Amino acid sequence: MRDEHDCDVLVVGAGPTGLCTALMLAQHGVRVRIADRRPGPVEQTRATIVHARTLELLDRLGVAETAVARGLPITEVEIHSSGRHAGEMSLAGEGTADQTRFPYALALEQFEMERLLVNALGEHAVAVEWGTEVTGVADTGSGVSVQTAGDVISARWLVGADGASSSVRKFLGQEFDGETYDQAGLLADVTLDVSLGVKGMRLNLTRGGFVGILPLRSGRYRLFGVVPPELHNSPRPAAVSHESYAPLDHADLQLWFDDYFKVDARLEEILWASMFRVHSRLAAKFRVGNAFLVGDAAHIHNPAGGQGLNLGVGDAINLAWKLAQVVHGEAPRWLLDTYEAERRPIARTVLRRTDSGSNWRPGTTRWPCGCARTSRLGSSVRSHGLRRCGGCSSTCSPSCGSGTGAAARSVGASAS
Ligand SMILES: Cc1cc2nc3c(=O)[nH]c(=O)nc-3n(C[C@H](O)[C@H](O)[C@H](O)COP(=O)(O)OP(=O)(O)OC[C@H]3O[C@@H](n4cnc5c(N)ncnc54)[C@H](O)[C@@H]3O)c2cc1C
């Protein structure tokens, strides 16, 4: 039944989380609009790792094959400790191909991911409304009334996918509690004077920090790492935001590369390098009345854990099929309560794991990705596969996975 609203669902924010939400809603025949204050799609590399579970979710949206074609499947992690080769870890260990169509982590730049999602949305005649900033939100009881610079949009449901500094979260009066740590993260896009291979990621561990070196299809490498406080003086940002990055002096990066991380390659070109403070925060509620928070708007953590985009896609799929069912009158409204019940514990787990990952020290029982592991490096590392790497691959709720979660069972529905 059609009602008086301009659309069934308004999605605010056209990052990966908002785009996946809108795409699944459109595929289910929901009248969806998606607005973003940016003038157009993102051009930065930003997130670069798409995990196996996320590829399975993208497969449901029909875009996984395009993503794989534009990315680089990573099947090995080569580990160096204090400049010396210490072992390898397989991401495609024995048996993993039986468990997933995607037995690897995909190196894929965020702008590529967003581009393919925008194109897929276009096939459903949904165009992102760029240059549209949301400046106010009011719950009307039967829906929401959303103020933009030049318009008021009414919708039955609102999805706030507007990132770490979310305006929707503020309009809903939700605290974003947590911490900002002293330790600083490092992100950079570089070229190197030697090839470190295209199948493997390199992890150079050192006292009090680490640097990961991820090959990208373009021939560049993404560096991500943690640097101890004594090596840097990065400022404490005023706002909790992934945008609060401080430029990193290129000479410092080369020095750390040679003397601290002890990488056996020289930096050729530094395209972008920055330091950031690590935040770890959760929104007080993921749902307020007719509005939901998803992705970075609901949770923020260390991007060096490579989970930000992945966690957001999991939120999007979990919420979108439920909203579609409720909009079409095929499921009771209480189904929507299961979004927060299922996703909050997962977000908490990722925050905990990426926190312990950023505080990693050699000899502890945590790896930089945040997964629990043996502290011994060497041959014991070789046999580990995706299955045991819970922190890296299992960021999804039961019901959006195989459709066997509590919500899916009780209404006989699944995300597919
Ligand atoms: C420089 C940089 C490097 C990063 N590197 C990594 C990495 O290596 N690994 C990793 O996992 N993550 C990384 N991240 C984080 C990753 O990009 C995010 O976790 C991911 O994009 C979250 O997706 P999202 O869709 O939830 O939010 P976002 O991608 O932040 O999208 C939010 C969107 O909402 C829009 N918006 C905001 N406010 C409004 C408003 N009032 N009205 C309308 N639109 C609005 C914004 O313009 C934006 O397009 C990085 C981020 C940055 C900025």
Features:
single chain; 416 residues; alpha+beta; FAD/NAD(P)-binding domain; Alpha-Beta Plaits; 2 domains; 9-stranded mixed sheet; 7-stranded mixed sheet; 19 strands; 28% helix; globular; disordered C terminus; binds flavin-adenine dinucleotide
Question: Secondary structure elements and their pairing?
Answer:
Elements: E1 7-12, H1 16-27, E2 32-35, E3 49-50, H2 52-60, H3 64-70, E4 72-74, E5 76-81, E6 84-90, H4 96-99, E7 105-107, H5 110-122, E8 134-139, E9 144-148, E10 152-160, H6 167-171, E11 176-192, E12 200-206, E13 209-215, E14 221-227, E15 246-247, H7 250-260, E16 267-283, E17 287-288, E18 291-293, E19 299-300, H8 308-327, H9 337-358, H10 390-393, H11 398-401, H12 406-411
Parallel strand pairs: 1-2, 1-10, 5-12, 10-18
Antiparallel strand pairs: 3-7, 4-7, 5-6, 8-9, 9-10, 11-14, 11-16, 12-13, 13-14, 15-16, 16-19, 17-18
Helix pairs in contact: 1-5, 1-8, 2-3, 2-8, 8-9
Descriptive account of the structure:
By secondary structure, the chain is of the alpha+beta class. It has 2 domains: 7-74 and 102-177 and 280-411, FAD/NAD(P)-binding domain (3-Layer(bba) Sandwich), CATH 3.50.50; 181-278, Alpha-Beta Plaits (2-Layer Sandwich), CATH 3.30.70.2450. The protein has helices at residues 16-27, 52-60, 64-70, 96-99, 110-122, 167-171, 250-260, 308-327, 337-358, 390-393, 398-401, 406-411, and strands at 7-12, 32-35, 49-50, 72-74, 76-81, 84-90, 105-107, 134-139, 144-148, 152-160, 176-192, 200-206, 209-215, 221-227, 246-247, 267-283, 287-288, 291-293, 299-300. Strands 5, 6, 11, 12, 13, 14, 15, 16 and 19 form a 9-stranded mixed β-sheet that branches. Strands 1, 2, 8, 9, 10, 17 and 18 form a 7-stranded mixed β-sheet that branches. The chain has a 3-stranded antiparallel β-sheet with strand order 3-7-4. Strand 12 (200-206) and strand 13 form a beta hairpin. Helix 2 packs parallel to helix 8 and helix 8 (308-327) runs antiparallel to helix 9 (337-358). The relative contact order is 0.17. Bound molecules: flavin-adenine dinucleotide. The site of flavin-adenine dinucleotide has 35 residues, from helix 1 and helix 8.
